[in-house]
Amino acid sequence: MKKHLQFILLIIALSSFTFSQADEPKRVEDNYFGIWTVHWGNDLKRNESSIDYVDTFKIELNPKGKLIISCINYEYYVFSEIKPTKSSINFLAENTEDPTERFMINYKLKRVNHDLLKGTIHNSRGQRNHITLKRFK
Q1: I want to staple 38 with a disulfide (CB 3.0 to 4.6 A). Which of 50, 53, 55, 64 is the partner?
Q2: What is the pLDDT of residues 96-109, one digit of tens each?
Q3: What is the CATH number of domain 27-135?
Q4: How far apart are CA 61 and CA 9, in angstroms?
Q5: Which candidate, 40, 21, 65, 54, places its Cα nearest to that of 128?
Q6: Banded model confidence at residue 9, pLDDT cuts 50, 70, 90
């Protein structure tokens, strides 16, 4: 009877460990998969800058297993230097629309929760802005 009780307690302990681990993504990159809408400023309800458009980023894995970012509604961004951690993601975007200018945008974002990233951008024109990314799906 004592061995049965020990076995049952072991099964319960292992089950609770498995359930607690199931909520955490297995890889850091898993925290960022999805489609994200880009909002200028710290507040999703009001725009705190003169920028009046909303980009939509798609974050996924490429066939080699590396994180990639694309902009669904604007084909001229080329993303590079993507560096995810458990609590933040940093990356560089180049706007290639004007071939005479190398316009770079450096994103530094911290995870607020599963569906929200907040941070700043700094671009090659010396502009800085607060930015919020909200997970669309």
Answers
A1: 55
A2: 999 999 999 999 99
A3: 2.40.128
A4: 40
A5: 40
A6: very low
